[in-house]
Design brief:
mainly alpha; 6 helices; about 5% strand; MarR/SlyA-like; DNA-binding transcription factor activity; DNA-binding MarR family transcriptional regulator
């Protein structure tokens, strides 16, 4: 294997592990607010602006079907609602309700504590550099997906 292949494999395995770690953390933060990590993810995407399911899926990197199932559950539980979309008659917008936004707000204090703890372990500068590196990696994978020449 080449060095590039080793790096791609290491990046993927690390991302898979990180995904599991972040999901575990998200579940532990969301549970006391009566949410799951998936519910929090979808509600968080529409916290400030209602979006169609397809836009939430693109932003979150998950399937449209998974977002649709989650949105349906959130609507059934009164945590979100569907609104008419002026740009597209059939693609309704998902918006958080007062109950959904209150649940998200309830996560805030524990979220802040965990963020502070992680920043304390990494140091704020290294934490920011890690986030920047993850964003660059994600953008490069997007470019690769589009058939571009990821640098």
């Amino acid at each position: 294997m080449t060095r590039d292949q080793d790096l791609l494999s290491a990046a993927a395995l690390t991302a898979f592990k990180l995904n599991g770690q972040f999901l575990d953390l998200a579940e532990s933060l969301a549970r006391p607010a009566g949410l799951t990590a998936a519910w929090w993810q979808v509600l968080g995407a529409v916290l400030h602006t209602p979006l169609p399911v397809s836009a939430i899926a693109r932003e979150m990197g998950i399937t449209r079907q998974a977002v649709q199932r989650t949105a349906d559950v959130l609507v059934d539980r009164g945590l979100a609602e569907y609104r008419d979309n002026p740009a597209h008659r059939r693609a309704k917008l998902v918006a958080g309700t007062e109950a959904g936004l209150a649940a998200i707000k309830a996560i805030g204090p524990d979220h802040a504590r965990q963020a502070k703890r992680l920043s304390g372990i990494l140091g704020q500068e290294d934490f920011a550099a890690a986030v920047d590196a993850l964003r660059k990696l994600s953008a490069a994978l997007d470019e690769l997906d589009r058939g571009g020449s990821a640098h």
